[in-house]
Amino acid sequence: EVQLVESGGGLVQPGGSMRLSCLASGLTFSSATMSWVRQAPGKGLEWVATILSDGSMTQYSDDVKGRFTISREITGNRVTLEMNNLKPEDTAVYFCGAGQSGLEYWGKGTLVTVSS
Asked: Quick one: which of 10, 29, 65, 107 could link to 4 by a disulfide (CB 3.0–4.6 Å)?
């Protein structure tokens, strides 16, 4: 059984930083592409970032490029999303995804609220 458990969400001020983590189990983490996708209140899903299985390439949406950084452990089973200069528009439930395309499996999400 594949499990993806996100953590690190909460309340943060605009301009602040927050680090999200995703712990994976039940899959070969070293061969899985990992992604972060978010859903803002009342909005649809928005892809945020992806990192390949070997960490050789990362991709970001235009909305977060330059502010967010996705990374993964080489010897472990964790992927992180470092978020900087957060904006109220970043408020969303952030989901961790995994698989060959980074989208086959999903976690339950962690809520990030950016507000003063």
From this structure: 107
